[in-house]
Amino acid sequence: MDRDWMRQRLEAFDELTSVYWGIHSAQHDTTFERKRLFEAEPTVLKILHRLDPRAGNLEILAESEWGGLTINVDEVRRGIGMLADMDEWAVRLAPEGPSFRADGLHPWVWEAALTFWESNHYRAAVHAAATSVNAHLQDKVGRRDVSDTKLLQEAFSDKAPEAGKPRLRIPGDQTDPGVQTRQRGASLLGQGAFAAFRNPAAHETGDLAEQDALEQLAAFSLVARLIDQCVVLR
Questions:
Q1: pTM score of the predicted model
Q2: What is the pLDDT of residues 130-183, one digit of tens each?
């Protein structure tokens, strides 16, 4: 809805009502003002109905017994008040949402990103976090020959460990379908985060929006927690 336009039309009608009553009280000819009021009424009714569908049968203008007008200006002013406060309603009356504490992210992620974040370098913060997760993963499995997506694939592989290729396993009974599903999910989540966020952060120019960067850090935090809780099979 174009709230500014709606409010302007209602305020113009309210002002015209005041002009009409001023001329009427002075016992002057109100023919011109009556004409303008009736011309404006259909749009006023449309606006009021849009603001409150229950106002479908609302009447704003009517002829009085003595040939004058009755004007339901209170409904018009009610509509003006609704439009004035609608933006504030959206903020003040919105459902309470949870707050997101960045320092609650996994330490591998937030400690690496913090310096860049404080200086508003959001893409660099994501890149630093991804680099940190990769470094901790390399340390955990004792490998330097592969990194990022390739390392995730091999570390979470369902194959048995090989010489120089340890595996990560989600804790629990490895024959349990739920544990197996989490294992596959951890691998796919990690590969997706590195492919979708780490590579663009390293190679693309221009900064990220703060919210986008925060969500990407959250993705790497999830990956970090999964890696951190895994056991290593050698």
A1: 0.61
A2: 999 999 999 999 999 999 999 999 999 989 999 999 999 999 998 999 999 999
Phi/psi of residue 191, each to 5°?
Answer: -60, -40
Rg (CA), the chain: 33
Q: What is the dihedral of CA 182, 188, 194, 200, to 10 degrees?
A: -140
Amino acid identity, position 130: A
Query: Nearest Cα to 130, choosing from 59, 39, 221, 57?
Result: 221
Query: What does the CA dihedral 126, 131, 133, 134 come to, rounded to 10 degrees?
Result: 140
Q: What is the DSSP string of the chain?
A: --HHHHHHHHHHHHHHHHHHHHHHHTT---HHHHHHHHHHHHHHHHHHHHH-GGGTT---EEE-TTS-EEE-HHHHHHHHHHHHHHHHHHHHTSPPPPP--GGGS-HHHHHHHHHHHHTT-HHHHHHHHHHHHHHHHHHHHT--S--HHHHHHHHT-SSPPBTTB-EEE-SS-TTSHHHHHHHHHHHHHHHHHIIIIIHHHHH--SPPPHHHHHHHHHHHHHHHHHHHHPEEE-
Kindly report, residue by residue over 2-14, the tens digit of the pLDDT: 899 999 999 999 9
Enumerate residues 6+ apart whose C-beta is below 8 A from 89: none
Give CA–CA dist 213/124, Å, rounded. 9
